[in-house]
Amino acid sequence: MSKEHGYYITIKEGDKGEDTEAFIRAALDHPRIAKWAYIKHDKEFYTESDLRARRYGLMYSWADGFPEMEKYSSRDEYIEEYMQKPPFVGDKLPEIWFIVCIAEKKSCGTEDIAEYFGVQESLVSMSADRCDIARNLRQLTQEDRFSRTAEKHLYPDSEVRSNFDFRSYIDNTVEHPKREKWKRIFSLPPVRQRKDRKKETIKRILALVYLAIIIALFVLMGIFL
């Protein structure tokens, strides 16, 4: 467990006055915040991945229910109506500021960070693990796995404002051995790194079968004990 806690916040350009960056800098100027890094994502366009995420979101909304759903004869009708509204693929997305704050453990909480930035506490994500903090830092430049898969714009380090060497923080963060072990077992490597896809697939299947057997044994023990 890390001795630091990381906090991840996003703020839409213009939501905090005419000079959003000045507002962010003022919020970061707090003795409880030891390290910080932020960037403005201003080169984002609506992609096919965003379109799929939007469709899934509509499906979840229909499953959860909402006051006006009775006016639609089916889920497909509801989804089709909203998918025909902007934004569309290729449209420029609003400019968003992404902020990572790092504080000493127990020095502050999500409620404090929310107060500094004038947002709801539910909009502040907290990480107690250094690996997760490093992952949030990767999201600033969008070099993280999700952003690369979604073909998001890759921002250079020079666009990140920070009061510490965030790149060294990322490079010096080592994944937990156990976490890396399970990644190797249950995740196939990228295509360009696959020398023997059949062997890796068999390895993955055997690992899943082994896990299923262990779960079944625990269930049987619970029945007969």
**Structural class by secondary-structure content:** alpha+beta
Tell me the helix content: 40-55%
Runs in which pLDDT lies below 50 for 5 or more consecutive residues are 188-195
- Share of β-strand residues: 5-15%
**Top CATH class of the largest domain:** Alpha Beta
| CATH architecture label of the largest domain | 3-Layer(aba) Sandwich
Number of helices: 9
What is the N-to-C order of secondary-structure elements (H for helix, E for strand)? Answer: EHEHHEHEHHEHHH
How far apart the termini lie comes to: 36 Å
Note the overall shape. Answer: globular
Radius of gyration: 22 Å
Largest sheet: 5 strands, antiparallel
Total domain count = 3
Task: Report the average pLDDT across residues.
Answer: 86
**CATH topology term of the largest domain:** Replication Protein E1, Chain: A
Describe the structure.
It is a single chain. With 225 residues, the chain is α+β, with helices and mostly antiparallel strands. The chain has 3 domains: 4-44 and 93-171, Replication Protein E1, Chain: A, CATH 3.40.1310.30; 48-83; 177-224. The protein is 46% helix and 13% strand. It has helices spanning 20-28, 48-64, 75-83, 110-117, 130-141, 145-149, 166-171, 177-186, 197-224, and strands at 4-12, 35-41, 96-104, 125-127, 161-162. Helix 2 runs antiparallel to helix 3 (75-83).
